[in-house]
C-alpha cells in the first residue's frame, strides 16, 4: 500500500536536489554541415548555427581553438549569440600540446588566453581542455611545469597514452585542482574514473553498445546515474565527440546522444526532488 509523501519529506527531497551542482551536457563543436536539416533548419545560415545550438544545450566544447589562434572578434560574437548562462569549454592549442608537448608553455599560453579573454571577462569560460597526443608518454616534470604556467581557472587534461594513469600524475593534478578527463572509448581500457579535482570532465568519443559509435539508451542510463552521483560533489562537464551521422537514422549521433543524456539527468533530478 502506497503512502502519501509528507510535506517534510518533500522539503528534504527538494533540499537534496538543490544541493546538486550543474551538469553541463553538450557537443564537441557545433559547426558541422552534416547537421544541417537535422539540428539546424535547412535554410538557417551558418552564422546563426551557434545561436540555434544554444537553444538546445547549455554548453559547447570549442574545437577551433585547438587548430589555430581564434580572433577576439569571433569570441565576442560567440558571447553575443548565446544566453547569459551558456558556458564554453575551450580546447587548448595543438601547438602547445602536440608540437611543444607542454614545454615552454608560458608565452604560448599568454597568447592563447589573450584571444579568449572575452570569455573569461564575462564569466562564460567554464574550463580549458588540454588534449595530449597518443605518442606523448608520461613526463611528470613537463606536466608540473605546464600546470605552474597556466593561469587561474579550471583546466582539464586528456591523456591518451596509458603511462599517464598513475598515482604520481593524479597527485600533480590534485595540487592544481586540474581534472583528469574521462575519455570514453572502447579501445582505451586504461582510462580511469579517478577524481583529481572538485569538478569532472567527460568526453564521449565512441559508444560501446550502439552501432557505429552510437551510445545505446542503456549505456546512457548508466552514464546518467554516474554523472548524477558525481554532481553531488561538484560541477560536471560532458561532451559528445561522435559528431558523424548515424548509420541507421542518418541523424547526428552527438546531438541525439547528448539530448538523451540531458533528459535522463533532468529526470533523475526531478525524481529526487519529488517532482512529477
What does this structure look like?
By secondary structure, the chain is α/β, with parallel strands linked by helices. The protein has one domain (20-273): TIM Barrel, CATH 3.20.20.410. It contains 11 helices and 9 strands. The protein has helices at 7-18, 49-53, 64-67, 72-80, 94-99, 105-115, 117-121, 140-149, 167-175, 217-230, 253-273, and strands at 23-28, 59-62, 87-91, 125-131, 155-158, 179-180, 182-184, 200-204, 236-240. A 9-stranded parallel β-sheet has the order 6-5-4-3-2-1-9-8-7. Strand 4 (125-131), helix 8 (140-149) and strand 5 form a beta-alpha-beta unit. The longest helix is centred in the last third of the chain and has 21 residues, at 253-273. The radius of gyration is 19 Å and the shape is globular. It starts with 6 loop residues before the first helix and ends with a helix.
Distinctive features:
globular, 15% strand, nine-stranded parallel beta sheet, alpha/beta, 276 residues, TIM Barrel
Report a brief summary of the structure:
It contains 11 helices and 9 strands. By secondary structure, the protein is α/β, with parallel strands linked by helices. The mean pLDDT is 93.
